[in-house]
Amino acid sequence: MNSGWSRFNISSIVLGFAFLYLPIVLLIIFSFNESKLVTVWGGFSTKWYGSLFNNQGLMDAAWVTARVGVISATVATVLGTMAALTLTRYTRFRGRILFSGMVFAPLVMPEVVTGLSLLLLFVAIGLDRGFLTVTLAHITFSMCFVAVVVQSRLVSFDRSLEEAAMDLGAPPVKTFFQITLPVIAPAIVSGWMLAFTLSLDDLVIASFASGPGATTLPMKIYSQVRLGVTPEINAACTLMIGVVAVGVIAASLINKRREIQRQRDEQAAQRA
Amino acid sequence: MSNLAASADTMNIDAAAARPLASRFLSGLVSRLVIIVPYLWLLVFFLVPFIIVFKISLSQTAIAMPPYVPAFSLEDGISGFFSQLGQMSIDNYLWLTEDALYFNAYVSSIVIAGISTLLTLLVGYPIAYGMARAPANLRPTLLMLVILPFWTSFLIRVYAWIGILKPEGLLNQFLQAIGIIDDPLLIMNTNTAIYIGIVYSYLPFMILPLYAALEKMDYSLIEAAQDLGCPPISAFWKITFPLSLPGVIAGCMLVFIPAVGEFVIPDLLGGSQTLMIGKTLWNEFFNNRDWPVSSAVAVILLLLLIVPIMIFQAAQARAQEQSR
Known about the structure:
The complex is a heterodimer. Chain A is mainly α.
C-alpha cells in the first residue's frame, strides 16, 4: 500500500502546500520590513506595528469589526442552531421546502447580489445604514453556514438519549439543555467561529450594507490597498491572520483532546 | 421484549400526564418558536430583499432618493399600488441587451470562471491524489493544512499576490535574479493575474471534495489493472478518474459558481479593462448610482447560476445516495 506514496505524490503535495502558504508567509515577512518599499528588504523592524496602533482610522475600523463580529456570530449561532433543529427534527410543517431553500441558497449566492438586495431592503424600510445594518446583514448570511455545520452534527445524533431522558420525566426544554446541547456543543462552537471569521473577512456585503461611521476593517484595508501596497497594511493583515490562526488551532486542539477523553471514557465504560 | 416496550410506553404516558399543563404548553410554544424565529428572519432578510431587487429591476432611474421610480409606499393604498404597477417596464433588461458592455461582461465572467475552474482542477487533482495516498496517520494533518488558509481573510490572500505579481514585485525580482528573464513580466492587471488569484483563493474548495472521493477509492483495483498489464496512465483514465468524477463535479461547481460573481479578485488583480459581472454590478451601483440597472444585472446573474447550482445539487444528492 505504501507504494502509492510515491515521489510524484510527495512532490505534488510539497509544491501544492508551497503554493498555498508562500504568499501568506511572504506577506508576514514583509510586514517586518524596515523599508517603506514593500518588496525590497531593508532590514528587520517592527515600526509598522507601532504606526498601526497610532493609525486612528484603522483602530476604529478594527473595533467596529470586532463588535460586529461578536454580536453577529452570537445571534447567527442561536438562529442557525434553531434552523438546524427545524431542518432535522420537524420534517413536516407547511413551507418546509421554502425554508430549506432559504437556508441553503445564501451559501451559493454571489456576494454582490446578497449585498445589493440587503441594501435595497434597508432603503425600502427606511433604516439608516450603519452599525445595525451591517450586523443584520452578517447575521443573515452567517446563520446559514452555522445551520449547515450544526445540522451535520444533529443528523448523526443518537436520539435514544433524548428519549431516555423524556421517559424519565424530563420536559423537552430541559432535555434539550441537559442532553442535546452538550452533545452538539462542539458543532455549535465551530459554527460560532465560522460565523465570526466570515464576518471578520467580509468586504463586499459590508460595503453595501454599511454606512458612514461603521467602516469595517476589510473596508478600510480595501480602500488603502487600492492606493497601493504598504507595509502598514501588511502588519494589519499579519495581526488578523494571527488572531484567526490562534483561534482555529486552539479550537482544533480542544476538540482533539475532547475526542481522546471521550474514547477513553467509552473504553472504560466497556471494560466496566 | 414487547412487554418491556409496553411498560416503557405506559411509563411515558404517566410521565406526560404527571407533567403540569403549564410546562406542556411552554414546550409546545418553544418548539413553535424554534421554527418561527429563523423562518421569519430568513423571510424578511433573504426572500423579501430579492423581491425588492426584482421589483426595482423593473423600475426606472430617477434623480431622487431612493434613485428610482415608482417607489411603492404603504400610504398610496391598493389603487396607488396598481397605478404604479403600470409604470413598471422591462426597459432595463432591454438596455442590458442593447449595450454590448453587459453582454461582454457576462460572457467574459463565464469564460474567466471556466478557465480558472479548469486550472484549479489541474492544480488541485495531484494534491488531492497525493493526500489520499499519504500514510493514514498523516492525512488529518494534511487536511488541516488545506483548510487553514481558508480561515484567513480572502481579501488578505488576494492582497498578498499584488506584492508578488506587480512589475517590480517579488516574482519578477526572483526571475531576474536567477537570470531567466531580462525584462519584468507584466502579469499584474491582466487576466493571467485573475486566473492566479482565483486558483489560489478557491483551491481548498477543489481539493476537499476531490480528496473525499479519492480517499474512499479501493486502490486494489489499480493493482489488479496493473497486474493485468494496463499501463499506469491508462489505468488512471479508466479507473481512478471515473471513480473520482463525483468529487470532480462537486469541486468544479464549488469553484465555478462563486468565481462567476467574483468582485474582489478582478478588482484588485485585474486591470481597468477587465470585464467581470460582479465588478460591473459594483460600478453600476456605487459609481453610476443606477440602482434599477444594477438590480437587473443581479437578476440575470442569478439566472445564469441556476444551471450550475442544479448540477451541483444533483451531484450532491447522488453522492449521498451512494454513501447510504
